[in-house]
Design the sequence.
């Protein structure tokens, strides 16, 4: 699982030169996605330390979303 997740976390962050993304460590943005263990469905999302999605419900929408 750890190696598989690198394809959507640290690897793209490295390729795109996004130094603050892709890893959980001191000084990083604090983006975390919590998945259902069985289905891998996204349950919760924290971005830059802010709760964006909880229990599959989007709490914060982007600039162009209603």
Sequence:
């Amino acid at each position: 699982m750890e190696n598989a997740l690198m394809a959507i976390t640290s690897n793209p962050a490295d390729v795109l030169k996004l130094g603050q993304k892709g890893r959980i460590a001191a000084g990083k943005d604090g983006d975390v996605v919590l998945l259902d263990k069985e289905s891998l469905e996204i349950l919760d999302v924290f971005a830059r330390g802010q709760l964006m999605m909880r229990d599959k419900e989007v709490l914060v929408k982007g600039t162009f979303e209603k």
Notes: The mean pLDDT is 89.
